[in-house]
Amino acid sequence: MRIVLVGPPGAGKGTQAALLAERLGIPHVSTGNLFRDNISQGTELGREVQQILREGGLVPDEVTIAMAADRLAQPDAGDGFLLDGFPRNIAQAQALDELLGEGGHKLTAVLDLEVPEDEVVKRIAGRRMCRKNSGHVFHVEYAPPAVPGVCDVCGGELYQRDDDQEDTVRHRLELYHQETEPIIGYYREQGLVVTIAALGPVPEITQRALAALPEADAA
């Protein structure tokens, strides 16, 4: 299966991508991992991305597309993949179609994780990180610490990242609506979009997605 996962920030794409890829036996390919892997391996594309990010710029579409093409050409992606974070706009979606078409393939489905905007803001703006260990994450409503502002695990101070401030979250949502959301319409015209309600327990959302996928075995 060849799947694209889309949804706004805070929709749980990373969590669902990992779970779905494992259940379906296909690699989870995320844009963030592509960048990190190429940078850590010192590839030509990785060096280019590192320089761009160091200067505070945005990675051009052609660089992101080239990285995705290299990754999807790997043997483990021959029978399918789950893309998370790519394509991010119409130009990248068209490039992906061309790339797959060259190999005689096409996408199986585009999973659209649907979450109300107010819930997205609540999920992200309520997140608190531990200053001692960034892996210790809490939420003021959904997973509060026993003592407000104190990490249950190591006693470190909990804080809100700048990226998680409500104004920043709403700006990220605006960018999503402008740049990424249009690909849903693009793929809907191809009959590929499956919209999944992404509210509720994580396992239930995973089951909804598996049940909605063509040819998927949800067992």
UniProtKB/TrEMBL annotation:
<keyword id="KW-0545">Nucleotide biosynthesis</keyword>
<keyword id="KW-0808">Transferase</keyword>
<feature type="binding site">
    <location>
        <position position="36"/>
    </location>
    <ligand>
        <name>AMP</name>
    </ligand>
</feature>
<feature type="binding site">
    <location>
        <begin position="85"/>
        <end position="88"/>
    </location>
    <ligand>
        <name>AMP</name>
    </ligand>
</feature>
<dbReference type="Pfam" id="PF05191">
    <property type="entry name" value="ADK_lid"/>
</dbReference>
<feature type="binding site">
    <location>
        <begin position="10"/>
        <end position="15"/>
    </location>
    <ligand>
        <name>ATP</name>
    </ligand>
</feature>
<feature type="region of interest" description="NMP">
    <location>
        <begin position="30"/>
        <end position="59"/>
    </location>
</feature>
<feature type="binding site">
    <location>
        <begin position="137"/>
        <end position="138"/>
    </location>
    <ligand>
        <name>ATP</name>
    </ligand>
</feature>
<keyword id="KW-0963">Cytoplasm</keyword>
<keyword id="KW-0418">Kinase</keyword>
<dbReference type="InterPro" id="IPR007862">
    <property type="entry name" value="Adenylate_kinase_lid-dom"/>
</dbReference>
<dbReference type="InterPro" id="IPR033690">
    <property type="entry name" value="Adenylat_kinase_CS"/>
</dbReference>
<feature type="binding site">
    <location>
        <position position="161"/>
    </location>
    <ligand>
        <name>AMP</name>
    </ligand>
</feature>
<protein>
    <recommendedName>
        <fullName>Adenylate kinase</fullName>
        <ecNumber>2.7.4.3</ecNumber>
    </recommendedName>
</protein>
<feature type="binding site">
    <location>
        <position position="200"/>
    </location>
    <ligand>
        <name>ATP</name>
    </ligand>
</feature>
<dbReference type="InterPro" id="IPR000850">
    <property type="entry name" value="Adenylat/UMP-CMP_kin"/>
</dbReference>
<feature type="binding site">
    <location>
        <position position="127"/>
    </location>
    <ligand>
        <name>ATP</name>
    </ligand>
</feature>
<comment type="subunit">
    <text>Monomer.</text>
</comment>
<feature type="binding site">
    <location>
        <position position="172"/>
    </location>
    <ligand>
        <name>AMP</name>
    </ligand>
</feature>
<dbReference type="GO" id="GO:0044209">
    <property type="term" value="P:AMP salvage"/>
</dbReference>
<comment type="pathway">
    <text>Purine metabolism; AMP biosynthesis via salvage pathway; AMP from ADP: step 1/1.</text>
</comment>
<keyword id="KW-0067">ATP-binding</keyword>
<dbReference type="Pfam" id="PF00406">
    <property type="entry name" value="ADK"/>
</dbReference>
<dbReference type="GO" id="GO:0004017">
    <property type="term" value="F:AMP kinase activity"/>
</dbReference>
<keyword id="KW-0547">Nucleotide-binding</keyword>
<feature type="binding site">
    <location>
        <position position="31"/>
    </location>
    <ligand>
        <name>AMP</name>
    </ligand>
</feature>
<feature type="domain" description="Adenylate kinase active site lid">
    <location>
        <begin position="127"/>
        <end position="163"/>
    </location>
</feature>
<feature type="binding site">
    <location>
        <position position="92"/>
    </location>
    <ligand>
        <name>AMP</name>
    </ligand>
</feature>
<feature type="binding site">
    <location>
        <begin position="57"/>
        <end position="59"/>
    </location>
    <ligand>
        <name>AMP</name>
    </ligand>
</feature>
<dbReference type="InterPro" id="IPR006259">
    <property type="entry name" value="Adenyl_kin_sub"/>
</dbReference>
<comment type="function">
    <text>Catalyzes the reversible transfer of the terminal phosphate group between ATP and AMP. Plays an important role in cellular energy homeostasis and in adenine nucleotide metabolism.</text>
</comment>
<dbReference type="GO" id="GO:0005524">
    <property type="term" value="F:ATP binding"/>
</dbReference>
<comment type="similarity">
    <text>Belongs to the adenylate kinase family.</text>
</comment>
<dbReference type="GO" id="GO:0005737">
    <property type="term" value="C:cytoplasm"/>
</dbReference>
<dbReference type="InterPro" id="IPR027417">
    <property type="entry name" value="P-loop_NTPase"/>
</dbReference>
